[in-house]
Write a structure and sequence with these properties.
114 residues, mainly alpha, Endonuclease, Chain A, three-stranded antiparallel beta sheet
Length: 114
């Protein structure tokens, strides 16, 4: 299916998408108000967590309903359905890989850095 927008319209649309979700802003703001200091999108940690608190060895992933296919609130776009299905399914698979990584790290090596 061809795009219904011109290249310029699509570019402006994509530029308007924020890299930080509203949900992530809410979580960040509350942590900051509680006096917890954190890093965002820490590249040297597996899965590049949305927030990480090194002092407490905590990683936080804020998974929004659309991008992580929430079974209650998530929806599958009808346009370009094959593309979106593959993309969103890969996000869910990646979430499982990351969750498994941190779960195993805690279970088997509780004294090591997470």
């Amino acid at each position: 299916m061809t795009d219904v927008m011109t290249k310029e319209q699509r570019r402006k649309n994509m530029q308007a998408i924020k890299s930080i979700s509203k949900l992530e802003k809410i979580v960040s703001k509350e942590l900051w108000k509680k006096g917890l200091r954190f890093r965002t999108n820490t590249k040297n940690l597996f899965g590049k967590p949305d927030l990480s608190i090194k002092k407490y060895k905590i990683v936080i992933f804020v998974d929004s309903c659309f991008w992580h296919r929430c079974p209650i609130h998530g929806n599958m776009p009808k346009n370009n359905a094959d593309f979106w299905y593959r993309k969103l399914t890969r996000n869910v698979d990646r979430d499982k890989e990351v969750n498994d990584y941190y779960t195993k790290k805690i279970e088997f090596h509780p004294q090591t850095h997470v």
